[in-house]
Amino acid sequence: MKKYIISLDQGTTSCRSILFDQNKNIVHVEQQEFTQIMPENGWVEHDAVEILNTQLQTLNLLIQNSNIDIENIDSIGITNQRETTVLWDKKSGKPVYNAIVWQDNRTADFCKSIIKEGHEKIIRNKTGLVVDSYFSSTKIHWILNHSAECKDLIEKGDLLFGTIDTWLIWNLTGNHFTDVTNASRTQLLNIHELKWDKELLEIFQIPSSILPEVKQSADDFGHWNFKDHQIPIRGVAGDQQAALFGQECFEKGMAKNTYGTGCFMLMNTGGNIISSKNGLLTTVAWSVDGEVNYALEGSVFIAGAAIQWLRDSLKIINHASETEQLACTTKDEDVLFIPAFSGLGAPYWNMNVKGAILGITRNTGIAEIAKAALESLAFQSKDVLIAMEKDANFKLKSLAVDGGACQNNYLMQFQADVLNCKVVKPVQIESTALGAAMLAGHKSGFFEKNTSQNSKSKTTFSPQKSTKIDEKIKAWNKAISSLVNYYDQE
Length: 490
Ligand code: ADP
Known about the structure:
CATH superfamily of the largest domain: ATPase, nucleotide binding domain
Distance between the termini: 67 Å
Bound molecules: adenosine-5'-diphosphate
Number of domains: 2
Number of helices: 15
């Protein structure tokens, strides 16, 4: 029996290669950052070749520094930043333009024109997504119209498109494949049929010849050749979907929340495609053994970023982790912090709103502000989760958590109290990389049966319901609607 799986975790700022053993323990990690290219305001690009080289360097270093016998590698799993778009020449292997990153909003005007032409409803129904520059479709359109060589390459059948999973798979194996979770973020996949959609391709003026073949998330993606050893790639998923899988949210109604710079929440809705009435996205969670799970997705723009703001702009703390201690030193319940630095996302969707700190008195100090900032992560997550529960018609029983800020115990307890449901932090909070490894190991039954996160000790925060919490929730809701009123009347 092989002993290890390698997970390639290709993120927005760094590439990591992580070695997992059969008990889901991390044996070794190699990580390297790569360049963020920002040619204009709102534009974000990556050099796809740099990403590939950085990823390969971490992979080679992992094999070298962990001293493992290559014979003992079962397979590779890949998880990646989603939506980021690469087009390249099949013959030379060279990208025709830098990768356009998910954060890039250069296609905002094109999105507006798509909406004006009345395509929004069809796009929403077929893809589960809103028309936004976030997704790959308009990024592909932009590159096709701004790179002179594209026309010629299309005529020769030599132009290929891929999200970053596809770019890595093609370079590692020679196969032009993607998985269904990544495909569902291009805005070109019909999520009902799990096929590229002719009508969508026409709307975005994209030739079907450039698209990769769509595989399941646990599938045969080909082999990477390392010193005459053929290592299979068997698992691929976009980062948020991989985290949902890594958190073992296998059943309908299970949800995870990742507390990073922003918060990303996904709820498994089983085989049902639920169309949101509250501004959430519908997406493919995974496809394994011919069975597809869908998810509702919502994000909070400013979560850990509010803590960064205390540290880097206000300079009232030195480290994000100090906020836990600070929050515990005050009994103040009046200060509320709404970090709407760039408007309010799901479920409020109001881009006019700016942030506010309310309830300040002469006694307000660093501790009160820090506590209110932490609580804002929990309140915003609550609002997204309530929208999910309404859309899906489920009551959440427990929320699986991960991401940097989930290390803050004050925040996690407060989250449980506000949601009035259990918040569960696994031992292994690298859910994204683990999810990709679990997908890769699925077919070979690589992971020991008793290595389920459920059988490992984990921290559970049980809700402590109190009138204090109810009042605070009321105050938060009132503050949000007052702020929306304030800015809408401008
Ligand atoms: P990302 O992947 O978005 O870069 P991470 O998952 O690495 O984010 O988490 C980093 C974010 O979490 C930062 O915004 C930081 O402010 C916040 N953070 C990290 N540790 C803590 C903590 N102990 N308490 C509160 N916030 C924290």
